[in-house]
Amino acid sequence: xxxxxxxxxxxxxxxxxxxxxxxxxxDLVLDARTPEVLHEAAAGLRAYVTRVTAVPGxxxxxxxxxxxxxxxxxxxxxxxxxxxxxxxxxxxLVRLDELRLEGLRRALEVNVVGALGLVQEALPLLRASGTxxxxxxxxxxxxxxxxxxxxxxxxxxxxxxxxxxxGEEEPGLRVWAVDPGDMATDLYAAAVPDDEDPRPTxxxxxxxxxxxxxxxxxxxxxxxxxxxxxxx
Length: 232
Known about the structure:
Layout (H helix, E strand, L loop, with lengths): L2 E4 L5 H12 L3 E6 L2 H11 L6 E5 L5 H14 L4 E4 L17 H29 L3 E5 L12 H20 L4 E6 L6 H6 L10 H14 L4 E4 H5 L4
Parallel strand pairs: 1-2, 1-4, 2-3, 4-5, 5-6, 6-7
Helix pairs in contact: 1-7, 3-4, 4-5
C-alpha cells in the first residue's frame, strides 16, 4: 500500500484528506500538536482497515520530523508528503503595523522552515518511491494582497516558491502547491472570527487533491476551485 505523511491531520483539511486516502487503502502517518485530538482522528481512520500511525508533535522540531519519517519508513516508505500544518502569526489577523514579529517568526517557522525540513528528511524515501509526491497547502493570500493577511500570506508565498524550486530540482517527483480556497475550518475562524459567510467544507475540497493524485500533472501551483470545475 502507498504511504502518506500528512501534517496538521487532526482536523480540517488534513483530517478530511487522510480519510479520503484511508478509504483508498493508503497507510498513513499523521501529525498534529494536540495528542488527544490526533489519536481520536487516527482511531476513526482505522475503521478503513488501514495502518495509521499518529505522531503528536510540532513540525518546527527536527526530532519530531525525524520521527514522522521513521514511522513512514516502518510502514514501507514515503509516497506522499502533505505539508498542511499552518500557523497564522496572529489570531485574529492584524494589519502589518500591529503584527508582532514573534508571530511572524512562528508563521515562517511552521509554514516554511518546518515544511522544508520535513521534505529534506523524507527526500531519500520520496526519491525511492517511484511516484514520490509533495503537496504544500497554499493560500490565495500568497498571491493576492488582502488587508491583515500580510504575515500569513508572506509565509505561504515563500512556501510556494520553495515548492516551485523543489519541482525544478527534483524532476523525478511531483511537487504541487495547492490553494484550497476558503474553507470552513478552525484556522479560518481564528483568522477572521467575525466572518459568518458560508464556506465550503474541507471534505468538499478534497476531490481536487484526489484529482491531482489520479492524473499526476506536472509539478506546479494549482487552485482547488479550478480543479473541482474540471480545469487546471
